[in-house]
Amino acid sequence: MATLKDIATTAGVSLATVSRVLNDDPTLSVKEETKLRILEVAEKLEYRSKIVKKTGKKTKHKHHFLALYNYKQEAEVDDPYYLSIRHGIETQCDKLGIALTNCYNSQIDTDITKITGILLIGKTDPRVLHQVPPRLNNHICYIDFSDTQAEYDSVDIDLAKISKQVVDFFVKQGYTRIGFIGGQDEPNITDIREHAFIEYGSLKGVVSEDDIYLGAFSSLSGYNLAKKMLAKGDFPKAMFIASDSIAIGVLRAIHELGLNIPGDIALISVNDIPTARFTFPPLSTVRIHSEMMGIQGVNLLVEKYRDERTLPLQVYVPSQLKLRETTR
């Protein structure tokens, strides 16, 4: 089993910093990039911590939440974005004295009778909701997904707004043709980023269906899709990439062809994972505060219980365009 020292060595930080980050020390002042890098290393090394109460007494929890992720746990290793959401949920539950059970791949592998609230992370198969007892129907919150037709709270990112922001940025720089490399969580289901990018970009006259490439949300997929696009010879000189993980593969494909970034081709991706600052060149990307999404999801469930609120709320966590060296 990995130790705190292993994590500190791999992440290039002190042992004390690792300990304080993993224990969510509120007095610690550390950059968000460093914090996420530590969490990413801890997950890759399969570190598991156990919080022991110094009192020695059993803590009686008022709530027991279920965090149901619509993806396999391995996705947290491939993309720290997902890991950060879970960390936000876990630290906030620990801070508020809430018991928590994590389940993956939309499989409820726990005794649902002890659960008082459910966090649904990502788009969940509607059939899963049929397993939820009626007593919990008013105590469900979506994270990283929203449904205006559902009577549930949600914490999400305005991905459509992000797509439009990227198109506007490139248009302002004088680009007349912008491409897209993205992924699909489900077959035949259009990602919000892709839909908004095509719709808004088409209105601006800078996007064509021929410049849309779709695969999986992984670096390997990004690499293969970029190779396919670049092999055509005639490719867009500006690209919107759906995630940093995909962009890492795209960067490799561009480097192999000997092209200059951003001279020959410019890139903007999404998420701002810790690695984004250390790619070559450093990625321009849209920062999503994914840990805050997890925190606010927990807060909404607690507040709904406390205030007996029946009206569903939709919370959108703000994002920030971080310009680095893959753009002019």
Describe the protein.
- The protein is α/β, with parallel strands linked by helices and 328 residues long.
- The protein has helices at 4-11, 15-22, 32-44, 75-78, 80-96, 126-129, 159-172, 192-203, 219-231, 244-256, 290-307, and strands spanning 64-69, 99-103, 117-121, 140-143, 153-156, 178-183, 212-215, 238-241, 266-271, 285-288, 314-316, 319-322.
- It is 38% helix and 17% strand.
- It has a six-stranded parallel sheet, with helices on one face.
- Helix 7 runs parallel beside helix 8 (192-203).
- The longest helix is centred in the last third of the chain and has 18 residues, at 290-307.
- It is globular and about 60 Å long.
Helix percentage:
25-40%
End-to-end Cα distance, whole Å, is 45 Å
> How would you describe the shape?
globular
What is the count of helical runs? 11
- Quaternary class: single chain
User: What percentage of the residues does DSSP assign to strands (E)?
Assistant: 15-25%
Number of strands: 12
Radius of gyration from the alpha-carbon trace, in angstroms? 21 Å
Strand order of the largest sheet: 2-1-3-4-5-11
The stretches of 5 or more residues where confidence is low (pLDDT under 50) are: 50-59
Order of helices and strands: HHHEHHEEHEEHEHEHEHEEHEE
Give a short account of the largest sheet.
6 strands, parallel
User: In terms of structural class, how would the helical and strand content be classed?
Assistant: alpha/beta
The average pLDDT score comes to 90
Briefly characterize the structure.
With 328 residues, this protein is of the alpha/beta class.
Which short descriptors sum up this protein?
single chain; 328 residues; alpha/beta; 6-stranded parallel β-sheet; 11 helices; globular
